[in-house]
Structures are given as structure tokens and as C-alpha cells.
Amino acid sequence: MSAQSTWMPRPEMAMAAGPSSYLRAEEALATFRNAMRRLAGHVHVVTTCLNGERGGLTATAVCSLTAQPPRILACINLSGRSYRMIAESRVMAVNVLGTEHEALARRFATASGADPFDGGERWTQAATGAPLLELAQASFDCTVDQMLMTGTHAIVIGEIRHISHRDTGTPLLYVNGEFRGAGPLDLPFAASASEQASR
Q1: Is 163:196 a contact under the CB 8 Å cutoff?
Q2: Is the distance from CB of 61 to CB of 81 less than 8 angstroms?
Q3: If I label 68, which of 110, 157, 173, 195 is the partner at 20 to 30 A Cα–Cα?
Q4: ω into 69 cis (within 30 of 0)
Q5: Is 171 helix (H, G, I), strand (E, B) or coil?
Q6: Which ranges of the chain would DSSP assign to H, the alpha helix?
Q7: If we measure between CA atoms, which residue out of 100, 53, 92, 88 comes closest to residue 75?
Q8: Model confidence over 139-164: pLDDT tens digits?
């Protein structure tokens, strides 16, 4: 069964269209959220370090941006502690999770007051000092190149200083409010992918 709704985000558009053809603000927000739940996203933990203190959050809004220079972006809520740490430290690492990391993803997604790094996983660091998950599917260690504010979030663009990866594993996805596994990976990487990215 499918649901269809008319989207009228701007009040002036709604006034011109008439009251029967647009959603009220709260209905529009619910429709947006419900539709976005169908968009599967790979699960990541974005980490940072400021004055020796570690921070991080679970994120799905992450993607590659450019190859030359190598850059990646992550969308981060402005109200969170991790955003403030990244904004001050100007470093972040994007750790790509596999299905074995579901508990880790849940810890970093919950503001419980407990240290999310305290779960038995091994963490390392490379160029910037941001925490890298040792057994991540891939990790991208970055300095922050730009931060673009839009609504409740910042688009944080990181210039990659170091890359590590595994050649096998099952990616962890988040869709329709649930963690799920994708098909297992068994992919050869180009030789250059195992080297540090340009500094």
C-alpha cells in the first residue's frame, strides 16, 4: 500500500494553492521523516579528539565528495557535543561499520552519559589524533576543510589525511528504524587505496 502527499513547505506556496492541497507543518514533518526512513544508509561512527578528550556520534549522512583532493562529508547536528568538539578541534574520523558493530553504533547514538568508547573495541589513531576503530570496514582520518551550516545541521567537509580498510566484511545499514546487514563484501582494492592519502 502506498501513501501520497502534497508537499508545501513554504507558507506563501500554501496560501496560493489553497488549504485543501497542502499538509499542515506537523503532517509535513511526519511525512518527510516517514519517507526518509525508506532511504537505507550505511552506518558510521564519526569521532574526534579535543585536548585529549574523545567524542563521537553515529551517522548515516556521510558520502565521498572529491577524489582530488580526497574529501569526504558528514552531516552533524549542531546541538550535539560532538559538533562542538569537531568545530574547535578541526579534526574528525569517519569509521565505516560492519554488522559486528551494531552494539557500538547503538552506544554512540544514545546520549546515556556513559563513555561510548568503553565497549571493548580497540581504537587507534593516525595523522590527526581522532579515534580510528581498528576493525572498521574503513576509516578516514580527516582535517576539517569547511563547515557549512544549514538548518539544524552542519555539513562538515573533511580533507582525508589517512585511510585504512578491510577487504572483507558485511556492511551495517540503517533503514526503516532498524539496523540490517547488506551482502558481504569480498572486493579487491586498488593498491593505492591501502596507502595514505595525499597530505
Answers
A1: yes
A2: no
A3: 173
A4: yes
A5: strand
A6: 11-17, 25-36, 81-89, 102-109
A7: 92
A8: 999 999 999 999 999 999 999 999 99
